[in-house]
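Narrative of accomplishments. A recurring question from our advisory board has been how the design workflow behaves on a single, concrete structure rather than in aggregate. To address it, we present the structure tokens for one chain from the evaluation set, followed by the sequence designed for it. No filtering or post-editing was applied between the two.
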């Protein structure tokens, strides 16, 4: 299986995203994209909000709230049309669930709070005092349809703004003896206790909060046919609640859901412990692998053989979602581990054409990035060809040729029903060459590079070996020139914004 994050941060704010994705679904499926992770479709703080500034979980673009009926991505009817088309062609939908916080409250409420140290949230830096904070959520446009629950100050554990003195800080909301940050071990221990991330932080120790969000999960799955959920910011909210949520979804709708969490951290041990606590019914994005890609791409003559050192895909391959970029790792921002453009094709080949991990494409690498600093599709537009190579040829036993620092390769031998196999060779220095074994059954065949970056031909010798080459700082994917599906390469249309 192959998944794609089907958005990027700077998708045009024209409310046509659901429509554009609908038109692309057949092409995605034909190329080898089996499931798409769509952006947060709940009403945000404004018509331009990407959904991580979530206002109302129960508004999927149906009610006139926060300046529009639809979300940035489109209306609920357009979302349902997208899902129907995806189901028709066999592409699964993964929902992006933002459950840590709420934004854009409808009114202010007074409550007692204490300021805490931004670098250690267990340390208070003020006496308790009354603040006036944006913590009242009435959802006037929706009323009580779908849920009667309204939110008040006591449903939150923290906030970041006091309207009384216009001060921005991290405020721990005070109440009864149970009020405070999530208990130690229930959220990540970074910054002492990483319960608070942004906006109005939901308090999952409050029974009404827990019930409303659990009810929302059931409601959502009845509104939309889903194959899975991507959970935003899982290291910031209750693990105990998340286990309840997952257990409930399995109980009500049957097992087989795919659940993946954003636990963005380069500490592999913390990620492995989290998976263990979640009972391995969960996956995480392989952030350490992205950091490795970044480091290798920025180091001259870096040792490619170390690419999988201390990564989730190496230690927990069944629970690792491998990726190269996502909406938080833009190439022009000093954020999480940007990767040099020349290395993108190598990185994608390393997640798409190998056995372990569940690879995730990034919309911005497939279709390009908009905004003030636009970027064209990465990999010279060849990323869809790598996906297609995965779909057609990346099967069977894998043999690695990781025997030289700046030039590595591997072979996939194929299976009885997918017999073609493939040979991959890449270099982060000068032109590369590997003598690799693809199998005696291929003796006499002529193999060529499906990417077209290496123009020559290779004849497989009687013993099943051949010398495979690649251009400098590039790669080649070698397959029998007469293999089934070779005529399908180079057909992907990445102009998603054409009228």
């Amino acid at each position: 299986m192959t998944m794609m994050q089907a958005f990027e941060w700077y998708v045009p704010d024209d409310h046509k995203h659901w429509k554009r994705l609908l038109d692309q679904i057949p092409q995605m499926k034909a190329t080898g994209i089996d499931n798409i992770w769509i952006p947060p479709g709940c009403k945000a703080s404004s018509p331009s909000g990407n959904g991580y500034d979530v206002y109302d979980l129960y508004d999927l673009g149906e009610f006139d709230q926060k300046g529009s009926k639809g979300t940035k991505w489109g209306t609920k009817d357009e979302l349902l049309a997208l899902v129907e088309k995806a189901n028709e062609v066999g592409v699964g939908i993964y929902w992006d669930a933002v459950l840590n916080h709420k934004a854009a409250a409808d009114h202010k409420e007074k409550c007692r709070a204490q300021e805490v140290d931004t670098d250690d949230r267990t340390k208070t830096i003020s006496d308790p005092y009354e603040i006036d904070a944006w913590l009242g959520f009435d959802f006037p446009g929706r009323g009580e349809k779908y849920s009667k629950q309204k939110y008040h100050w006591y449903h939150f554990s923290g906030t970041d703004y006091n309207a009384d003195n216009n001060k921005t800080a991290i405020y721990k909301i005070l109440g009864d003896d149970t009020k405070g940050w999530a208990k130690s071990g229930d959220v990540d221990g970074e910054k002492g206790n990483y319960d608070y991330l942004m906006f109005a932080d939901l308090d999952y120790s409050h029974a009404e909060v827990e019930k409303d969000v659990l009810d929302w999960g059931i409601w959502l799955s009845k509104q939309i046919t889903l194959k899975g959920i991507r959970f935003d910011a899982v290291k910031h909210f209750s693990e105990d609640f998340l286990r309840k949520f997952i257990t409930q979804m399995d109980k009500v709708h049957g097992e087989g859901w795919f659940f993946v969490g954003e636990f963005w951290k380069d500490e592999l041990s913390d990620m492995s412990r989290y998976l263990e606590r979640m009972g391995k019914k969960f996956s995480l994005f392989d952030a350490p692998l992205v950091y490795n890609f970044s480091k290798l791409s920025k180091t001259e003559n870096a040792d490619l053989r170390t690419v999988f050192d201390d990564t989730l895909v190496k230690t927990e391959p069944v629970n690792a979602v491998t990726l190269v970029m996502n909406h938080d790792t833009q190439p022009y921002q000093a954020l999480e581990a940007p990767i040099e453009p020349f290395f993108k094709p190598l990185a994608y080949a390393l997640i798409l054409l190998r056995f372990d991990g569940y690879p995730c494409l990034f919309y911005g690498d497939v279709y390009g990035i908009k905004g003030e600093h636009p970027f064209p599709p990465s990999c010279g537009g060849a990323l869809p060809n790598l996906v297609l190579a995965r779909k057609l040829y990346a099967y069977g036993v894998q043999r690695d040729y990781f025997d030289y620092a700046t030039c590595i390769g591997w072979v996939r031998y194929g299976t009885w029903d997918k017999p073609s196999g493939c040979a991959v060779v890449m270099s982060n220095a000068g032109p590369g060459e590997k003598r690799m074994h693809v199998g005696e059954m291929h003796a006499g065949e002529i193999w060529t590079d499906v990417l077209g970056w290496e123009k020559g031909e290779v004849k497989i010798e009687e013993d099943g070996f051949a010398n495979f080459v690649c251009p400098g700082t590039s790669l080649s994917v070698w397959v029998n020139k007469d293999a089934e599906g070779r005529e399908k390469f180079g057909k992907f249309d990445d102009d998603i914004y054409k009228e």
